[in-house]
What we know:
Chain A is of the alpha+beta class. Helices cover 28% and strands 32% of the residues of chain A. In chain A, strand 4 (131-141) and strand 5 form a beta hairpin.
Amino acid sequence: MPQIEAIELDGHGPVYDQIKRAVTAQIRSGAWKPGDRLPSEADLSQSLATARMTVNRALRELTEDGLLVRRRRAGTFVAQPDAPAALLKIVDMAKAIPARGQTYGYVCETDDTVPASPAIAKAMRLPPGARLQHVECLHTADGEIVEFEERWINLALLPGAAQAGFDTEGPGGWLLRAAPWTEAEHTVSAVNADADLARRLGVEPGAACLVLERRTFQGQDVVTYARLTHPGSRHSMTERFSPQR
Amino acid sequence: MPQIEAIELDGHGPVYDQIKRAVTAQIRSGAWKPGDRLPSEADLSQSLATARMTVNRALRELTEDGLLVRRRRAGTFVAQPDAPAALLKIVDMAKAIPARGQTYGYVCETDDTVPASPAIAKAMRLPPGARLQHVECLHTADGEIVEFEERWINLALLPGAAQAGFDTEGPGGWLLRAAPWTEAEHTVSAVNADADLARRLGVEPGAACLVLERRTFQGQDVVTYARLTHPGSRHSMTERFSPQR
DNA sequence: TGCGGCTAATTGTCTATACAATAAATTCCT
DNA sequence: AGGAATTTATTGTATAGACAATTAGCCGCA
């Protein structure tokens, strides 16, 4: 049970917002980890010299955002970031496939430390030649290939990726543990499989494939870039959302 | 300036939640339209016999959800649902294309009242043969085709669609006015263009195309079903979001 | 008419307090 | 020991009151 030190406000803007920023910073920096318990509202309001309602609003909104989990009498905890949002149900195959009752399989084809090519460097906002861990792997459901994953991890931010060993587990799970709280950006497009891709995915050359590109950020820095390719006819992804914004 | 009548609470659950439901119901039902002004917090708290903080929380959360817009001194208004969420930037081409500085073009190819085919009926949760307005149209940017839209509108819910006339304006804009507040569900997939689709989109047969299917709901009922097809190489869509949930 | 300043309506935030709901922890009883 | 009852820490909601911030609308003046 980790001891959580007091946080400090920065004096900018509304107090509830300062509290939100301070708590978020602790979580994003990794000082507070998933499962850690926060001080109670009473403790926080005393140590920050604010009303409990103000602390309550801050923690309530962070809970809305999914950053915290709260249980009456038990307390407030840093959330486990294990339920990827909306579109991304598709992204972590290691979880999505068993969830549909299929058996999940994983094959690692490449796991190397490489210098960034110009194209990847640009996508990751890095200078060409920056050190990256490059992983290529396949995800299968009941033996059928459902996703080809190409991934580049920024070793400057996550040096551990070079020794992680992605031969039995995909990068998705490891990243979730190593850098749990991030932002992501997605791009979806369709391409015809070229000879190489067709061979890897086990489809006819020219077959339509769905490509999902994902960049994961910590602040302004790109932590990892992934290109996830799906045989078109075999996969689709669904998202449902409430009111417009 | 429409006069807004008092709303009523239902006594179930927290008061702020009752207020949220009551306001949402007014908006979803169309009784309060985009741009309408709500009573002030002071008025509402008096007429509902609750504290202003409670009303404030309800309206603040609905504003978070994008249902309302608030301006100091001016008041609280039903939001204009004109900024489609995340993924859907791609959906309303009539807005997305000018926003990128390109000139937008529209061609209507079909606008008929038809009975629902079995496949469409299933997708729209309707009995086969139900009356639908069926529209097929093209969206262009700087003269190039960027989207082929096939749309079916449930005439039982929106009888006006039969007389709307989609020859100069796409169904997107009309629907936004006719049924502004809804929920939507999206599915993305990739297909190879068949001969017919290739001809319509002006691409080679077999070219990979991105297909976005969209079902729009009012409660449990499907208001409209759309299949939006994009020439793969020419289009992609991007979404960025903050912390996981 | 147009501009500048004033007024006041409205939302935004903060506080202090109170009580309800929940469920973990403890005590008590057998 | 184990189960039931009780205690209590913690969050959840509601309230009344206060002041700050914003700005639409009005008034006066040139």
